[in-house]
Design a protein that fits this description.
Length: 176
Amino acid sequence: MDTLINRMIRAAKLDVQLYEEVEKDQTAMSQAMAVVVISSLAGGIGSLGAMGLSGLFFGMIASLVGWFIWAFLTYFIGTRLLPEPQTKADMGELLRTIGFSSSPGVIRVAGVIPFLGAIVMFAASIWMLVAMVIAVRQALDYQSTGRAVGVCLIGWVVQMVLYGILFALLGAGSGL
């Protein structure tokens, strides 16, 4: 457990070497998944006032599914559409690094504080996005941070479109 906490702190500090470390550590997949669960749990607790108890459960499930989808999209976009000459990665490397990029999301638990919640949630989102750019840059062996930003943004847009389609198909907008 000490290793997980230490790694989460290093990931939140945007330690490039941590992202290289978990990229190479094939045993870190369960830790990466734990980070996503802990971060989503913190986000759920932080938004209890706005979403209630059901938001906590569904938020965790959505976070895990979203983590996998975003990692897959990032893998595809980064290795097939926008690779650099030295780009070499597998899906596990992206899952591990992107999982750890969720570490800053732990601060979302402070979202329960009145008048501070929205600020905390916004700050955590930006921090997590910056961590993800670093994670993608390291996992895909990019020299260019700009390319990593592009891959993350394209993946985010595609994921939002997929979520929109899913919510429309499930009737989320119609109160079902």
